[in-house]
Design a protein that fits this description.
This protein is of the alpha/beta class. It folds into two domains: 150 residues, HAD superfamily/HAD-like (Rossmann fold, 3-Layer(aba) Sandwich), CATH 3.40.50; 96 residues, Hypothetical Protein, Haloacid Dehalogenase-like Hydrolase, Chain: A, domain 2, CATH 3.30.1240. Strand 1, helix 1 and strand 2 form a beta-alpha-beta unit. Helix 1 runs parallel beside helix 8 and helix 2 crosses helix 4. The longest helix has 14 residues. It is globular. The two termini are 18 Å apart.
Length: 264
């Protein structure tokens, strides 16, 4: 079997360790792949504001897929190249519908320039300067993600209620308990990664992808070769072609070193 021509990897829980670091070995492997001309695309749910420290690891191709596919970012130019968000009126209708299904939920929107949150939303990451109030007053730009949070709800019930309420109007997914992430219709990690691959002249069959949570499922299903890290969610382990060692054991780097024979 020929070697892949593009690597796509999720970050948190996959490439990034539990202590939020990228190990020296992982950084070495990424740099060696870049030297060999193999693009490594970061494909993450993270907002742009959490990415600055990782940009130095993006290779010469200079592109990253951020916010579950809503943002295609040009790392070389440090600018947003594409953004597909939820517009204000459609978003407020979604909030109203979801609030009927999960009345205790708090809401926030992630925009290109940062977070906006309602009075119920608990910002566990304490975004500096994030405004708080009614979303109808704060929704002044397309939302790359609408966040639905209920810290007291059963995570499965929260997800089921939000997914049913959203229906076909948007894409609902999740990467942590007590939080559902909603993107514009048709926006997934896979959809944006496919556009990147097409631009680079790479077919899906020639992509190797790594992930750990349900928001990675479309990407793993699309890629020609897929790996779940050993610490992945059961649904991801069930879908992926292969299982890599856990994120804390440098699973992505170890697989890539073997696949691309980096010791040769």
């Amino acid at each position: 079997m020929s070697r892949p021509r593009l690597v796509a990897t999720d970050l948190d829980g996959t490439l990034v360790r539990s202590d939020e670091s990228v190990s020296p070995e992982s950084a070495r492997v990424l740099a060696e792949l870049d030297r060999r001309g193999i693009p490594v695309v970061f494909v993450t749910a993270r907002p742009l504001r959490w990415m600055e420290e990782l940009w130095s690891m993006v290779g010469a191709h200079g592109l990253a897929v951020v916010s579950n596919g809503a943002i295609l970012y040009d790392v070389t130019r440090r600018e947003v190249r594409e953004v597909v968000g939820i517009e204000r009126e459609a978003g407020l209708r979604l909030v109203e519908t979801i609030a009927r299904a999960v009345p205790a939920a708090g809401f926030a929107i992630e925009c290109v320039d940062g977070l906006r949150q309602d009075e119920r939303f608990v910002d566990l990451h304490r975004a500096s300067g994030a405004p708080r109030g009614a979303l109808a007053d704060l929704w002044d730009a397309p939302a790359v993600k609408l966040l639905v949070q209920d810290l007291d709800a059963d995570p499965h019930e929260l997800r089921a209620g939000v997914v049913e309420a959203v229906g076909e109007a948007a894409v609902a997914t999740w990467s942590v308990d007590h939080l559902v992430e909603i993107s514009a219709p048709g926006i997934t990690k896979a959809a944006t990664l496919a556009r990147v691959a097409a631009e680079l002249g790479v077919e899906a069959a020639d992509v190797i992808a790594f992930g750990d949570m349900p928001n990675d499922l479309p990407m793993l299903d699309w890629a020609g070769t897929s790996y779940a890290v050993a610490n992945a969610h059961p649904d991801v382990l069930a879908l992926a072609d292969h299982v890599a060692p856990a994120n804390d054991d440098d699973g992505v780097a170890r697989v890539l070193a073997e696949v691309f024979a980096l010791g040769e």
